[in-house]
Amino acid sequence: MIRLAALVLLLCVSAAQAAERRKETYDGNAYTLGEVPPAEEQLRLFLWDSDDLLYGHFGSIDRALRQQGKQLGFAMNAGMYHEDRAPVGHYIEQGQQQRRVISSAGPGNFGLLPNGILCLRESRADVFETSAYLAQNPQCYGATQSGPMLVIDGELHPRFLRGSDSLNIRNGVGVTANGDRMWMVISDQVVNFHHFARFFRDYLETPNALYFDGRVSRLHAPE
Predict the structure, then answer these.
(1) Is the CB of residue 75 less than 8 Å from the CB of residue 223?
(2) pLDDT tens for residues 145-171?
(3) How far is residue 168's CA from residue 188's CA, in Å, rounded to a whole number?
């Protein structure tokens, strides 16, 4: 059976099982992460099924994949959505744009500019700050917009405070500069934005990283 490791809104990875899942501790806080080489894995976003019904849960995706002889592997929620589960921002699934880019500031974490977009391309994954994404117009077969950015070209988001008491379970994604390695990360305990961002920049050394969500953050790793 083909095995898919995935990011979800839903995101997925595949058959070669090159994705590595492990635990890491940084500055007193624990994290679970999946390290994925996009050239060796099948990365996908999932939101609606073939009948335009929301998957809603990892189990629903896994059942659909099993009918195709595949299996959901490492997966996590990959963005922010409204109460009806429609994406808050830009969303592309299997090459089809379903939501446009939102570039204006707004309420909540999503609107805390700069925010960003995860772009899945053939054999690579990239995290773009939203204005850079619009300027470069990359051709993504999958994309999901969220916010805020955690790391922008090696710098922490300017609004993050080291001593902030805004603590949550948080998840996000970071990539290497050449897009050959991607990390899907969830905190095992509550952390603030500053600490979460430093895990990507200082521990994983990712030049760009994007926050996905807090409180509702979930991870699927059957192994």
Answers:
(1) no
(2) 999 999 999 999 999 999 999 999 999
(3) 10
